[in-house]
Write a structure and sequence with these properties.
The chain is α/β, with parallel strands linked by helices and about 425 residues long. The chain has two domains: about 270 residues, Rossmann fold (3-Layer(aba) Sandwich); about 110 residues, Dihydrodipicolinate Reductase, domain 2 (2-Layer Sandwich), CATH 3.30.360.90. Helices cover about 30% and strands about 20% of the residues. The protein contains twelve helices and 19 strands. Helix 3 runs parallel beside helix 7.
Amino acid sequence: MKASASVLDARMYSSEKSPGVYLEDQFNLPRGRGFSTGVPAFLGLMRSVPTEFPDAKDPEKAKQHRRVPRMLSLWSQFSIHVGRPYQDCMLAYAVRGFFENGGARCYVIMLDDESERSLEDALDTAASFHTIDLICLPDVVKDRKQNFERQQMVVNHCENTGDRLAILDSWRAEKKEGDVETESKEGVAEQWSSIDGTNGALYYPWIWVRGIDHGKVIVPPCGHVAGVYARTDASQGVHKAPANEVLEGVLELERQVTRQDQDFLNPRRVNCLRSFPGRGIRVWGARTLAGHDAWTYVNVRRLFLTAVRWINWHMADVVFEPNDVRLWARIERDLNAYFVDLYQRGALKGRGPQEAFYVKCNEETNPPEVRDLGQVITEIGLAPANPYEFVVVRLIHGASGVSISGPIRPEQNL
């Protein structure tokens, strides 16, 4: 299904690439068995696979074991299914931080090495797991250009699969003799401007946590932030911005972000982590990488992604039905029921459901030329509860599933 979105507020207009959208959810909405959100895939490095794995000492077979995604529901399972954590294992800290912050389930895909080919293989593996809706890459390489290329690969993966969002970590400055200096706010802003895509969010700065073996270590925040996503999804829903939430398991920030820093970074779509006396260390931003205002906020973007996942999850069989008025009526009935439930749970704004959303699937959206292509087009309009915008999306059911495109201008609507 392909869909397009447009914002009816004139301030929101602009062109944008087609973002895809597919399976899944977990925001206290009507759910089918196995349907959940806030489920990340962590892609990272390990020195070795667990000795319990068959033929783990055989290099080729060990490599094959690395590429098998490991589903974890507890931090204690990491040693059993992934490997023994060690002091500088960024993958382990990310997974631990996820569970410390309320995460319930994640997948771990081990990289063979730091090469782009290894990351590409891991992303190809992750692409077939539609239970995943977040991607984290906690391991970094020393070369900044290579870091950018890897992060762009992850964002491209999320754009191409159309059913997930990348949680990205800010770069770090060069390590100086006897001193570690965090990246400047200008450098982080440059990082945002260098990455192209909609399905991603960038977080700054890095965080200090207790070490696996001793002391404390500085690590990227993606795992802890992913836990916040999962926590807010479970308690309130994807329509709740994963912000103004305490980061658990964090000793201190690498750099104290000031109000002036935030004033500079917020318009540049960089999400800051802030320390507030008496209130703890909190996620203090929820903006995507997107340059288009319709997709500024993480919760709005994820609301649409989740809606389309739900549609694909529950309505996949429509591709086998005759494309006629009976099918259109069924689609409108099922989607209206779904969006009424969304409205009742606070995900949409309006004095009543008629102001919060609309669904249109009829001869107007499905003229003969569309039916000849084997597609069913449904136009939906959603008014996210926050921010106060009305976003119109056209969903297209086809043999390959459901997708979403946009935003489009009102005069482009059918």
